[in-house]
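Ticket opened by: R.M.
Priority: normal
Category: complex prediction / small molecule

The reporter submitted a protein together with DP6 and asked that the result be attached to this ticket for the collaborator who will pick it up next week. Submitted input follows.
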Amino acid sequence: MAENTVENKKLIETIVWRCPSNIAIVKYWGKKENQLPCNSSLSMTLSKAFTEIELTLQEKKAADEIELDFFFEGKKNVQFQERVKKYLSAQAKDFSFLKEFAVSINSHNSFPHSAGIASSASAFGAIALSICDVLRTLRKQTINEDFFRKASELARLGSGSACRSMYGDFVLWGKNNAIANSSDEFAIPVTDIHENFKNFHDAILIVEKEPKKVSSSVGHSLMNNHPFAENRFLQADKRVERLKNVLSSGDLSEFIHIAESEALTLHAMMMTSEDYYLLMKSGTLIAIEKIIEFRKETKIPVCFTLDAGPNVHVLYPGSEKNKVELFLNNMIGNSVKEIIFDQIGDGPQKIR
Ligand code: DP6
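Result attached by the on-call engineer:
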């Protein structure tokens, strides 16, 4: 790749990045202009759920418009292609090669498309990393802290939660007055993680495989004139501060309290929007009740969280893996269709 410069317009070799998904413990819900969040959020990066992006740049004649071919799992995907093309066009002033070359993207998810797992975080994360990597290579720079910061900022412009996928373990995004170096523009890794959280697991109980009826973008916009918005944003910032302390003190019961309350608050916001809607299904509630009951009976520190959909994320320390997974596997049947077992991960990886 080093010898391929924009000037001589030769074929740029393929770049491949793998970017994981993440699950928010304190939720991002509500945004301003330019994909800036209304509150800070804090997530755990996953390891097995990821998107791999293969980006190729090829010579083309005129450098006026973006030329993009987007393939998802080997098949042309026109719908996502249009979203990505719009995104790339908006970035072209900082990444001029996007117009100078014909761009081809092959995208592959490690999880089945039908599983109902949100893929925009890992997809935009991997796209942003690949684009930043081309520029880095052309400028003969190394992969350093600045690289990931820039990639996080760029990923945010594609999908807010994507900016948190740039780092492993626990990641914080959004300006929080109690946390130094926090920013609305990009995410930062959370350091000083207690042993209790270092090997955390996330089992995703698939309750529903259908795509969401209300997109996250519409959900975020409903926070604009939401009657509880202001208090919600303040609450989230306080919880991020608390959670950051919990992650270093190792307080599992406080973690459980924050995680579960955040999940219910997120859905409460949807249910109390002017254009109210409901994403939980009966299977979601059955699973939640069983988890709470199991925790009460066994005293095992296991809890649930939800993203903007009906599937239930079950969080637990690796030390409790066997007992929790035995319990979860017994839930497969009417309400739980399938379980995807994932765990905390190290963040993105350059494959090629
Ligand atoms: C409920 O990041 O999908 O998962 O910025 O519009 O792409 P856009 O939204 P998105 O919203 C994620 C919302 C959430 C909570 C979270 O991940 O923090």
